[in-house]
Design brief:
The protein is an alpha/beta fold and 416 residues long. It contains eleven helices and 19 strands. Strands 1-2-19-3-4-5-6-7 form an eight-stranded mixed β-sheet, with helices on both faces. It has a five-stranded mixed β-sheet with strand order 10-11-12-13-18. A hairpin with a 2-residue loop joins strand 10 (245-247) and strand 11 (250-254). Helix 1 packs antiparallel against helix 2 (41-52).
Length: 416
Amino acid sequence: METKKEVNENGNSEDSSRTLTDGSICGFESLYRLLQSSLSPEIFKEVSRLLIGLNCGKALEPLTIVETAKGLSSQHDFDIQAFRFNADKEILREPRIVRVGLIQNSIALPTTAPFLDQKKAIFQKLKPIIDAAGASGVNILCLQEAWMMPFAFCTREKRWCEFAEPADGESTQFLQGFARKYNMVIVNPILERDLKHGETIWNTAVIIGNNGNIIGKHRKNHIPRVGDFNESTYYMEGNTGHPVFETAYGKIGVNICYGRHHPLNWLAFGLNGAEIVFNPSATVGELSEPMWPIEARNAAIANSYFVGSINRVGTEVFPNPFTSGDGKPQHADFGHFYGSSHVSAPDASCTPSLSRNKDGLLISDMDLNLCRQLKDKWGFRMTARYELYADMLSRYVKPDFEPQVISDPLLHKNHL
């Protein structure tokens, strides 16, 4: 935990008057921790209520972290936090408690290191974090987007395609051992090389069952062409629809990264019955940080499911400078991946975020009964007008579509 920074003669933090390069916020690992340190307990309690909401009318409960996980966190210097989402007690159903883990991490070696060394180093870096999740009794674990490589999709250089691997390849095999060891479902987002279809490359999440089996996979639906994110150089829009995977612990979907900006993408996973939707991502502060705490939380509310948002950390510098086509000078990095992984619940509550600048493991107990309770409370499914949306969309995709605009008949009439 951070400590308060020295205050200068003007009453300001020494860190607040300069731009930091370590990814912190005025020397703090997150906004939540900055506020917690800066405000009195009474004021912080009220700010926290407004910032992260209330779960079943109460402040979100922290979970006790087991000593094994604490030790691994201390030894390997990663952030670890744990919380519980409750649901109201029901008469006809027992609680359905699922323990979910999210892992965020930076790369382990410079991008100039041999590719095989880079991948092996990331494996070794994640091992103690996954062990901490296993020791904590995590049932479903999700890693960040393309966790097994640097996020090189800004460079347009094809050599980074060498990191692509089959769905049942090295990264999946590495995680299957943990799935069997800890009886844990693992969501494994990789750069996939489809050997059965001409070695086409996809951005894919492989779902590994708690017995180490492959349940299935989902390929990223929406590909960004924004700023440095030139991802269509490497892979195109996925072809798997919006699958929901029924696991031993609940029904899960995976909305990969840029898909979080598309409300209908979130909706489709909900219509297919998802209870938890993971959003493994790689996004940087200058581009998206104000949107990060809003979109997933809104999706959880609108679709009555839990959302686990994961973002990598660190600044990845590449050997050859590149440009974005946006008029900025050439540069050799994306900017800072700001971490801040968190969980959002259907009742509008959410966890505090993990660190902006450290590897981390976020553990959340969630009672999946809360999903149906919020459906019953708000009735979004019953009050939605899907037939109107279906008609609108069927007309919109046609070349002769005309928007439904009714103009004021006096709008363009000349008056004397």
